[in-house]
Amino acid sequence: MLLRIVDRLEEILIATMMAGATLIIFLSVVQRFAVGIPLLFPIASQFDMDWAQELCIFMFIWMAKFGAAYGVRTGIHVGVDVLIKRLEPSRRKWVVLFGLLCGALFTGVIGTMGAKFVYGLMGTDQTTPDLEWPSWMVYLCIPLGSYLMCFRFLQVAWAFARTGELPHHDAAHVEDLVGEDAEMGAPV
Questions:
Q1: pTM of the predicted model, to two decimals?
Q2: How far is CA 139 from the centre of its chain?
Q3: Please, which residues have CB within 8 angstroms of residue 129's CB and are 6 or more apart in sequence?
Q4: What are phi and psi of 127, to 5 degrees?
Q5: pLDDT of 46-57, one tens digit each?
Q6: In a 10 Å sphere around its CB, with 0-12 CB exposed, 13-18 middle and 19+ buried, how is residue 164 labelled?
């Protein structure tokens, strides 16, 4: 139950950041060009969107950190497994587990270093240039995203140790999509 909530929150955060950044960039571009035509858009010159670029950069950084964790969970990260597939199954299992645990260790270390960095920033008055937010709020994505990714590596490693299966992404499959072929009994 808790895992499903975390999964959904992760997906909602990524989708919201992506949609929000896209909308903000669109509105910023419209506003920028509308200012040049004051007769058609007299209100555009009253809105200042100088902050939009900075906010979108922050949103894409947060989206990337949480998107990496999502990639580990769903198996969409790029992996080079040519040599691993040539190993005999008993050795392959240990090599894959070693790789997953190394990923967990690395992201755990990055999360801890990020947490120490954010904690150090919290005691300062550093702010972002345009939005004037406390800098620690922006950098908080490093420990949060890294710890989530560490958790996902451990989750995948645990499932792999029990079942021998890794998550994999089927580009041809769209969840909850029922097409004409599915109604006739053929796979979509």
A1: 0.84
A2: 15
A3: 54
A4: -130, 165
A5: 677 889 999 999
A6: exposed
